[in-house]
Design a protein that fits this description.
324 residues, Aminoglycoside 3'-phosphotransferase, Chain: A, domain 2, Phosphorylase Kinase, domain 1, alpha+beta
């Protein structure tokens, strides 16, 4: 049924016993284990860069990553049918359950171990890093987008939202500028490492008491605080807020960081920066950016629900951060 996929797999010296399609990739079941084959989103140059990072992590003994298989030519990809294909180990399809605090604890340990490796690796690989600060550059870029969004809200915001909502949105935007200034004052991002930049449930597989971090397509060179802040913000949204309202147990920020810092130390400076980064409403910015990319006559339900959730959870998030 998937003869073409089997032929592509041969480029990686893989002979599948059977093949089945799952979501956007194919699972290749072989005598020596299972592999995932998919059309790659990044360009070959980015795939090579990701492969180099993964190889270094493996050298540091970090094996809970979906390292690339290579072809006879030593490349981590092959071209076929006009597309670029990559093959990685397949760990299963059991995504991390953010409502399960045991699974979250395990993933925090593994993320801490991963970041330790990335920091050590970056010291060796990137000793001649450029003078620019990619992390602050990212926030400045968001600032330019917010300036545009602020103008659009003034020009035609009342077409979509009531006056009270518009006032609240402008306050959030002003808060973004304030937080960016605080990060600049803290000289945030002057030291950077490679970051996964997508530590969400779909990219973390839980299996037999361990987690495996997959899908490195969005890897960037930023400060590692961005990575762990992304994960914690998602934990707050997917677990803490709901658990708090239903009198269920969840980890506070101190407990979360204790799990994470088993392998990666959080200094007092890192902690101060982390709180600012966590407070920055990235989801609000991206939602507004996506909404204003095209001209619309109404607010789609998905956008409306996201913004309502962001507004409702803001106070809880700030309290969660401040209690530590």
């Amino acid at each position: 049924m998937y003869e073409n996929i089997a032929e592509i797999a041969k480029n990686f010296n893989i002979t599948p016993v059977n093949i089945y399609k799952y979501r956007y990739y194919y699972v290749l079941n072989c005598v020596n284990g299972a592999y995932s084959l998919s059309a790659a989103r990044p360009k070959p140059s980015k795939i090579n860069e990701i492969h180099k990072v993964k190889e270094c992590l493996l050298d540091y003994g970090i094996h809970n990553i979906d390292n690339y298989c290579v072809t006879d030519k030593g490349l981590p990809y092959c071209e076929a049918e006009g597309k670029i294909y990559v093959v990685t180990r397949f760990f299963g399809s059991n995504e991390l359950d953010f409502m399960n605090n045991t699974q979250v604890s395990v993933s925090l340990n593994d993320i801490g171990r991963l970041h330790k490796g990335l920091k050590l690796m970056s010291e060796e690989m990137l000793s001649v890093a450029s003078d620019n600060n990619p992390t602050i550059s990212m926030y400045r870029s968001k600032g330019k987008a917010l300036e545009r969004i602020k103008k659009l809200l003034i020009q035609k915001g009342n077409k979509y939202w009531d006056k009270e909502s518009l006032i609240l949105f402008r306050k959030i935007i002003d808060k973004c500028f304030e937080l960016t200034e605080r990060l600049e004052d803290l000289d945030y991002g002057n030291i950077s490492t490679y970051c996964h930049c997508g530590l969400k449930e779909g990219n973390i597989i839980y299996k037999k008491g361990r987690t495996y971090i997959i899908d490195w397509d969005n890897m960037k060179y930023l400060n590692y605080i961005e990575d762990i802040a992304f994960f914690i913000r998602r934990y707050i949204r997917k677990n803490c807020y709901y658990s708090h309202s239903h009198n269920m147990a969840y980890m506070n920020l101190e407990e979360v960081l204790n799990k994470y810092s088993r392998y990666t130390n959080i200094s007092s400076y890192d902690f101060e920066v982390l709180k600012v980064v966590m407070e920055y409403p990235h989801r609000f910015v991206s939602t507004m950016e996506d909404f204003f990319k095209t001209s619309k006559n109404f607010v789609p339900t998905g956008v409306k629900n996201k913004l309502e959730e962001i507004v409702v959870q803001r106070e809880f998030v700030n309290n969660y951060i401040s209690k530590c």
